[in-house]
Amino acid sequence: LRCKSHYFIDYAILLRKMGELFEDNGFLRDAIIHFEQGLSLKKDALYINPKGLFEYATTLDTLGDELQDKEYYHKALEIFNRILVIAPSYTNIHYSLALTYAHIGELEDDEVYLHRSISHFKVAAKNDVDNQDLLLDWALVTIQAAESTDSSSLQKEYYKDAEFKLVQSAKLGNTESYYHLACLYSIHNNIEQGFFFLEKAKQFDSLPSIEEIKKDEWLENLQNSPYFEDFISSLLPSSTQYNTPQ
Q1: Out of 138, 148, 181, 191, which residue is the most buried by the measure of CB atoms under 10 Å away?
Q2: How many angstroms separate the CA atoms of 122 and 127, rounded?
Q3: pLDDT at position 245, please?
Q4: What confidence tens digit (pLDDT) does each residue in 187-214 have?
Q5: Three-state secondary structure string covering the chain
């Protein structure tokens, strides 16, 4: 049974990776089925196989993100919290909890979950101070918390903290931070700095798709600027920019 359990779990991990690679929810659903089959074969799995549980919870969180379904998020939280009890030093457990709490907080627009996310980011960062991705994710959750709070003083503190973390992430080499700095300055209606960092992100080929840029709510102030269409045009292929009717 031990070998059979590991077979199911290893196959489930492979399915999850295929689901992420091909952006196919079918693979993720199959992965969950195989995780549950594998873990059910080991009644003591909760205590002796935190890796299998961790991968299972990660898959639930990923599928929740794809489907925007809070039930998957809540189930992932339940399992991550179990791991925290039995293996509190398990690799990335606080980072994973922070991300899942953030996903629920954003989906439900619930400030409580965002605060819990930030608390876990603080713990995760203590042992991983130079993780550029963690700093970026933490900054984005902090901006979300700033957008959700009714306290002007707390909002100001959140925005300042997010800016610091985005700059630190960029200094560590995460060029995606430039785009999110543009978003932050757009929220503050600092048009000049917003476009500066959009251009910076363009320079490092770190922009999302044109469609995402046009729809990003955090970029609303830049989108309303007369310079926005020129920036979008600069992202189009030269043949598209200069093609005129014959």
Answers
A1: 138
A2: 10
A3: 43
A4: 999 999 999 999 999 999 999 999 999 9
A5: CHHHHHHHHHHHHHHHHHHHHHCCHHHHHHHHHHHHHHHHCCCCHHHHCHHHHHHHHHHHHHHHHHHCCHHHHHHHHHHHHHHHHHCCCCCCHHHHHHHHHHHHHHHHCCHHHHHHHHHHHHHHHHCCCCCHHHHHHHHHHHHHHHHHCCCHHHHHHHHHHHHHHHHHHHHCCCCHHHHHHHHHHHHCCCHHHHHHHHHHHHHCCCCCCHHHHHHCHHHHHHHCCCCHHHHHHHHCCHHHHHCCCC
Q: Which residue's structure tokens are 């933490």?
A: 138
Residue 234 has phi, psi (to 5 degrees) of -70, -15
Q: How far apart are CA 9 and CA 7, in angstroms?
A: 6
pLDDT (tens digit per residue) in 44-93: 655 566 888 999 999 999 999 999 999 999 999 999 999 999 899 999 99
Q: Between 132-148 and 152-171, two packed helices, what is the crossing angle to 10 degrees?
A: 160
Given a contact cutoff of 8 angstroms between Cβ atoms, the answer to whether 231 and 214 are in contact is no
Q: How far is CA 238 from CA 183, 207, 214, 235, in A?
A: 26, 18, 20, 9
